[in-house]
Every structure is written in structure tokens, then in C-alpha cells.
Amino acid sequence: CFNPNLPYLQTSVYPDIPKNIVSFGASAYILEAGIGAGISGTLASKLGRRKPLIIHDLIGIVACILCSIPNIYCLLSGRLGIGLTAGLSTTVGPIYVNEMCPIEITGRAGSYFNIFVTTGSTKSNLLVSWY
Predict the structure, then answer these.
(1) Cβ atoms 32, 83 nearer than 8 A
(2) What average pLDDT is seen over the chain?
């Protein structure tokens, strides 16, 4: 998660980038997640369930690499890419899990997906706040 460690990133990782641009990078994630969630249904209908997840993984890898480069354009491009992957995965992921599970456990499997996403987010926020 990017927002809890924003002060550290502004002073240590991206000291040459203006603070308002780094803050916009944090906000761009939310904006692009909404766009990713909005287009994910169309992608899932046209390409199936598996191909959008593969595309999402590839975009996520490139976006993470871009975020590790201390450059303003790489930061913003990476954050937009990560937001897009978040929107895609939160929509297409549960659909894929629901279709792949036996009918007896589809409800539990969908609940587990949401529980794991929430737990992972909470854990990363707690870890960042301890440092």
C-alpha cells in the first residue's frame, strides 16, 4: 500500500519529485482502479476470464518495475498501471474463482477471495505503520 508510507517516499525514495506529484501518484491508483473495474466486465465477456487475468499480471509486473525507477513519469505510469490491475483483479478474479470451483463451494470460495484481499491489505498497512 502506498499511502501510509507517503512521507517516507517523498523524502527518501523520490526526493527530487515535487510532493504534490507524489501525492497525485498515490491518488492516481484509485482513479485507475475505478477505470479498471469499469472495463473489466467488457474484457471478461469478450476475452473470457483467463486472458484478462494474464493481461492484468503482465501490466502489474511492468507497473511494479516502473514504480521502482525514481523518475516522475515512471512513478505516474506505474501507479496508473497498478491501479488498472487492481480494478481488473477485483472484478475478474472472483468471477474466475466462482466458475472454477465446484458448485457446492462457490459461495465460500468467493467469500475467501474477499477475506484474503482484505487481510492482505490490512497486513500491509499494519507493517508499513510499524516502520
Answers:
(1) yes
(2) 81
